[in-house]
Amino acid sequence: MSNQLAFYFDASACSGCKACMAACKDRSDLAVGVNWRKVIQYGGGGWVPDPLDPRYPIPNNVYSYAVSVACMHCENPLCADVCPASAITKQADGTVLINTDLCIGCRYCEWACPYGAPQFNEGTGQMTKCDFCVDLQAQGLNPACVDACVMRALEVGDLDELRQEHGSIDAIEPLPLANITKPALVVKPHRHSSPSGQGAGRINDPFAEEV
Amino acid sequence: MELREWALIAYSILAQMSVGAFLILGVVHFAATRKAGMEEADRLSDRVLVAIIITLGLGMLASLFHLGSVANAPSAVTNFATSWLSREILIGVVFAVLGIVFSAMQWFKLGSFASRRVIAWITAVVGIALVYSMTQIYMLPTQPAWNNFATPITFFVTTLLLGSLAIGVALVANYAYVQKKNPDCADVQCELLRYVTRWIAVAAVVLVGIELVVIPIYVAYLVATGSAAAMASAKMMVDPYSLVFTLRLVLAFIGAGVFGVFLYQNATNPGQEKMMGYMAYGAFALVLIAEVMGRFLFYATQRGVGLM
Predict the structure, then answer these.
(1) pTM for the predicted model, two decimal places
(2) Which residues does chain A have within 8 Å of residue B76's beta carbon, measured at their own beta carbons?
(3) Which CATH number does the domain housing residue A35 bear?
């Protein structure tokens, strides 16, 4: 046991359906523009002239896969380091939570986090982020996103145990390099995914802000 | 850009201008004391000191508009162990308090000259620490457009450039106030004014030279690092902000460079005090606009790594 709760995400299984995102939004009743979990479509490849008839293009290594991203409850949470108000703290179970009694809404954590996890709620003037559904976990239930996944691509558990079971990969494209914040994440790569920083693809559906 | 972002621009520019003006005024006072004695030096600078404190106060007021939840503002100083933003706010408050104490001592001639000088030195060092802490706020490993040599260099150049030109304007205005009855400019104050203005003009030309060298190197550096985020920031200087980027450089060049040279000439020859005043106002206005545009670009072209 590492006393660090973590997410496991199976990129090889994820269909990009966004049920996790919808479940998260519903469970925490998130405002428009605030999405604690996002599903990002990443892909690459292109077209080449058909060798049989160069007038026609044919697909060449075209690929696409989805990555479901929420707060990584990092081992080195940069957001908590930079928060001037001591509003973001790492709990004993490894979760990183925001105290709204202290948050001043300066949005500095937003600049620090490479996962886009802390998000501003225009209505309250404060930052919000994934709380790992701590209330559900206290009742022995899974976070809403985990239970909503039809492909069973999401799991929650102890970081060490998840690593023993699934390996220790924590950064595939388009996730940022893991050395910045040491995310509490275990990823099973998609067959087309490259390690972070080595991909030649791009994010194909920049997340729609109006959701 | 919304109000909250303009609040950041206003605060950072006003705070840096206050620190720069305080430092430059210290140098001016020192030089004027050696040339004409302490009494004349005080006449030259005491009102200006009060203007600096007011500028700083306005800046700090503007910074509150940046917050989404002003009611919790007092908690913003609690995380000084790891957060440069907490440190900056603490240092800013210390600078403001020291500035007010020193201004009061100087205005009412409280304490000995030596004790006032000690307070002035401490305030100056805290001011430099304030600008340093402002640079560190932006040195985040996730922000390649900020996390490089250009942030500290440009922040300190802005501090000294705006500071010296603001002092130029303030001294001209102060002189107009002090010498309403003596427009022919034949007294010690006028001599001091011309002497100080020459050095301010020299400082402005040198500082804008540094700025005009560093900014192109900075953009080239962003392109050379090759990270997607740095490249995105560099591209934004061309599209959609090419006009702002160009104007920012041109206005700084005209304001501090061209007006600076004229300012020096006008301050060298007695009898051109009126034109010297216009040049001082013009240089300050142009450079202020250029620096505000530069700070706008600083925030507007920021692109973080990863999924921001």
Answers:
(1) 0.93
(2) 84-85, 104, 106
(3) 3.30.70.20
